[in-house]
Amino acid sequence: MDAKSSPETRVKVGTISGGAGRAMPHDSGHLHVTGGAAYTDDLPEPRDLLHIAVGMSSVPHARIVSLDLSAVRAAPGVVDVMTADDIPGENNCGPVIPDEPIFAPALVQYAGQAIFAVAATSVMAARRAARLASISYEPLEPILDPLTAVEKESFVVPSETIRRGDSRKAIDSAAHRLSGRLHLGGQDHFYLEGQIAMALPREDGDMFIYSSTQHPGEVQHLVAAAIGKQSKDVVVECRRMGGAFGGKESQPALIACIAALMTWKTGRSCKLRLDRDDDMIMTGKRHDFVIDYEVGFDDSGRIQGIEFMFASRCGFSADLSSAINDRTMFHCDNAYYIGDCTIVSHRCKTHTVSNTAFRGFGGPQGMFGIEYVVDDIARYLGRDALEVRRRNYYGSGERDVTQYLQTVEDNLLEEITGRLVETSEYETRVSDIRAFNEQNPVLKRGIALTPVKFGISFTATHLNQAGALLHVYTDGTVHINHGGTEMGQGLFTKVAQVVAEELQIDLERIKITASDTSKVPNASATAASSGSDLNGKAAQAAARKIKKRLVRFATEYYGVDAAEVEFRDNAVRVGAQNVAFDEFVRLAWAARTSLSATGFYRTPKINYDRRTFSGRPFYYFAYGAAVSEVVIDTLTGENRLLRVDILHDCGKSLNPAIDMGQVEGGFLQGAGWLTTEELKWNERGELTTHAPSTYKIPACSDLPVDFRAEMFEPGRNREKTIYRSKAVGEPPLMLALSVFHALRDAIASVGGEGCRPPLTAPATPEAVLAAIEAVRSARASWFALTSPSPDSKENA
Ligand code: MTE
Ligand code: HPA
Ligand code: MOS
Questions:
Q1: At what angle do helices 363-381 and 385-392 cross, to 10 degrees?
Q2: Residue 207 neighbours by CB under 8 Å, 6+ apart
Q3: How high is the pLDDT of residue 14?
Q4: Average pLDDT, rounded, for the chain
Q5: Which band of pLDDT confidence, cut at 50, 70 and 90, is reported for residue 752?
Q6: pLDDT tens across 216-263, in order?
Q7: What pLDDT band is residue 300 in, cutting at 50, 70 and 90?
Q8: Which of 424-451 are b and which e, b meaning 16 or more Cβ less than 10 Å from the residue's Cβ?
Q9: Which ligand 1 atom is the nearest neighbour of the CA of 191?
Q10: Is the CB of 209 under 6 A from ligand 2?
Q11: Would the CB of 547 count as within 6 Å of ligand 2?
């Protein structure tokens, strides 16, 4: 090992291609664009393969009175049919609490819930047959929105509260007070590759599963329990997903369990691939929220105390809702010191699909809450919104403790904001926009700068661990495997870069391999943005183990000191000699040196007590800020994103090309959530927006006309993460809060001083128009505005 220089400085030296810190293309980039990348549905199909379709509930809450599947069984091509009664093991795919049946037993709890599955010789035969079921229901009263659930105390897990100081007193004694109710929509993941699994029977009842999953280990465990086997009997593999975004953290288990159960029943390979509509109807999404707040603040806009009530739509089962709503409570400060506070979180049980992880994992919803509050304060006081935001930023040495009692030690927001204000010419543009709005009666512009502070680590401390497996072959090439999964985010490339850096060999020598439960066991989901933090370190540990053995071999074989052995530029320098890496490895093998090693990593420093919601849940924070400028048409509500400037902190980036892709992509996905993507359920509890015809994700034409994203330089994580990099997967999504507030700013120009537009999210043209009309009708009376009532929006 290179004893003289630290890992960070070594990133810069040497001539290997593709070490840490290099802007390398995604390892599968050429395959993505040529169609050569194999997704689960592209894998060669076994000769005996059957295709599965799922029979779903058409009602949200009911008892099944009768279930007649004879027509399904008799349909052409049908080989087998199964229901809850046929399950040999546990009828559960709930990841944390066993409250989510694979097939509904007597009770159905959402429109779209799986009741039975049919296996046939072709996809279409299975799908046609599934429609022939005759089911009669005894309807039960459904709960279809979070507020009704709160009223009826219908929760999937108990409500939680974080309290600091005396918020009531702080609010009452503040110079100013505001309160309001916010409505925030959910989001469908709209991964390009839908949910899919293929199960293959192996000898003696064992099972091999190809699953498009962020969590192969969980699929393994739940499949084993469903088919009445154990973890050792099931292997799960995933080479890549065509996008996941949190939608494949827990949801793939249902799909894989159905495929595995059908394979167990028929003895044949079985594949279940949901079509887009069924995928959107059957699988969970981002939680939509109703947020109540009351805040007290001083003349400068500084918050003295705040009370939040968060009510989220969890759907019919717990899924990951407990941790997701915890993260909401952890992020309802965003970048701000919120003083004395009471934060109440209700995890509402509704008779709708069970909601799940989505990029940000509840954090974005908490941040939406506080950003709205800070914006309201600024508008109420007639002060510049950015000035009020900065006034509330966490301090250093004082006002730097979060509501969960973690001290913010690494705050970069003053610096990031200061730089972004300059590079984006914020001040000039604010006055230009005011002038534009004076002169234009129809088109109005708006601008907003919003910060992001996002906690990195799974809040459940035990999940912050990872393993890796590394083999060096005698030709000097390397096989790397780890517990992480690839969903397009570039994790496999980044981990391979770490190995290249450690062994000082070219990236092309390293084979990146599929996630596989038989290679690395008990891995956490690739989630919480921590994939490269955890797996990068585990791979580094494995590489260092092998290097140590190789150094020892060299000292014995060449009779040199360990200090005289150095790995550099695809070679090993031993004393005065330079031995090519492949030659050196061959010699080490001949001297009977083990060239295979596992690596393990656990995040240091974190500790957190969920009973008191206090401690240090996060190893560090990732920071960023964005300025968005929009124009709206006040006659129609239509709008365009004109310009976006982003400055985002990736620490010392492992791969600036891939990380910038995450920054830009995350931002745009966030903009979709807050502007165009609208989920609607009708009064019968059916999701009515289950295809791209009615659900609008951002298209290329929705990109900002002028898009300037930059990385904060020189970034460096103050914690000892892998080469001092920072997680980047989720945080940039929340930069899109600036788009929402730019729209709000544009709308506010229609009203008078102190106007607070009651804009709901997503800010669709319809919502923008409604807010404009509310502002116009309230203008004469200078009325303090609050959001419209839930009914006016929800079932519109
Ligand atoms: N980027 C792409 N292209 N596709 C994805 O599915 N998922 C996001 C983010 N970026 C996702 C993505 C989510 S929700 C997370 S938690 C992280 O990637 C997970 O990967 P990482 O921990 O390796 O960053
Ligand atoms: N983030 C993302 N996914 C998770 C978490 C988290 O904090 N906890 C469990 N799954
Ligand atoms: Mo990401 S929501 O943590 O999978």
A1: 120
A2: 199, 200, 201, 223, 227, 229, 233, 234, 235, 260, 263, 264
A3: 59
A4: 96
A5: confident
A6: 999 999 999 999 999 999 999 999 999 999 999 999 999 999 999 999
A7: very high
A8: bebeebbeebeeebeeeeebbbbbbbbb
A9: 6
A10: no
A11: no
Ligand 3 atom nearest to CA at 247: 4
Q: Give the 3-state secondary structure of residue 508.
A: helix
Question: Ligand 2 centroid vs 778 CA: distance in angstroms?
Answer: 43
Query: How far, in Å, is the centroid of ligand 1 from the Cα of 488?
Result: 7
Q: What is the CA radius of gyration of the chain?
A: 27
Tokens of 192: 């390009």
Three-state DSSP class for residue 640: strand
Say if residues 338 and 370 touch (Cβ distance below 8 Å).
yes
Per-residue model confidence as pLDDT tens digits over 26-76: 999 999 999 999 999 999 999 999 999 999 999 999 999 999 999 999 999
**Ligand 1, atom nearest to 189 Cα:** 6
Ligand 3 atom at minimum distance from 528 CA = 3
For the chain, give the number of residues: 796
Read off the pLDDT of residues 262-281 as tens digits, 9 standing for 90 and up: 999 999 999 999 999 999 99
Show the tokens assigned to 305: 């105390």
Give yes or no for residue 732 CB within 6 A of ligand 3.
Answer: no
Q: Nearest bound ligand to CA 531? A: 1
What's at 359, amino acid-wise?
A: R
* Ligand 3 pocket mutation pick from 454, 730, 734 by most atoms within 8 angstroms of CB: 730
With cut-offs at 50, 70 and 90, classify the pLDDT of residue 15. confident
CA of 250 to the centre of ligand 3 (A): 10
Give how far Cα 614 sits from Cα of 161, 309, 384, 396, 604, Å.
12, 19, 34, 20, 17
> Does the beta carbon of 361 lie inside 6 Å of ligand 2?
yes
Ligand 1 contacts CB of residue 359 (under 6 A) = yes
Tell whether ligand 3 has an atom less than 6 A from the beta carbon of residue 249: yes
Sequence-distant (≥ 6) Cβ neighbours of residue 367 within 8 angstroms:
331, 332, 334, 452, 734, 737
Active site residues: 730
Q: What is the pTM of this model?
A: 0.96
DSSP state of 513: -
